[in-house]
Specification:
Length: about 140
């Protein structure tokens, strides 16, 4: 009698797993995408800040030296492993001398990065993002 009662419930866990598996896979893929995008944002912010810090020590900021710094900082990103130029997608870097808010010279570095195609989640994540960071640093 006891054996029959458990035999009827035997496949319940397998059925629950089969019903929830697509949802769990969907969440797993979303977590991987979010993690990659977060890593891109943090890396891009760090690279832009490093380039602006260096350009702030120069009298005439130039995009070539800023590009070198940004490429070195972002070398771990997926689609930038062999990139050496900063004039076209996926990486665009520009550095210029501007007048800061205190009417003194400042260096402004702008970095635009386009992520590789990822798995889109409708309504939450698109297939690809373009991220731009701009940092201004006082010269001197």
């Amino acid at each position: 009698m006891i054996r029959n009662r458990f035999a009827k419930r035997r496949g319940a866990a397998m059925m629950e797993f089969a019903l929830l598996c697509p949802f769990v896979c969907f969440l797993f893929i979303g977590a991987i995408d979010w993690g990659f995008y977060a890593y891109c944002l943090i890396s891009l912010e760090t690279a832009t800040r490093s380039a602006a810090l260096y350009e702030g020590t120069q009298n005439n900021p130039d995009s070539a030296s800023a590009c070198t710094i940004v490429v070195n900082e972002l070398s771990t990103l997926v689609n930038l492993g062999s990139t050496s130029s900063c004039g076209a997608s996926p990486l665009v870097v520009s550095a210029s001398k501007i007048t800061g808010p205190d009417n003194l010279d400042a260096a402004q570095v702008s970095v635009t990065y386009t992520t590789p195609n990822m798995i889109p989640i409708p309504g939450v994540l698109s297939k690809q993002f373009t991220i731009t960071r701009v940092v201004t640093m006082k010269i001197g």
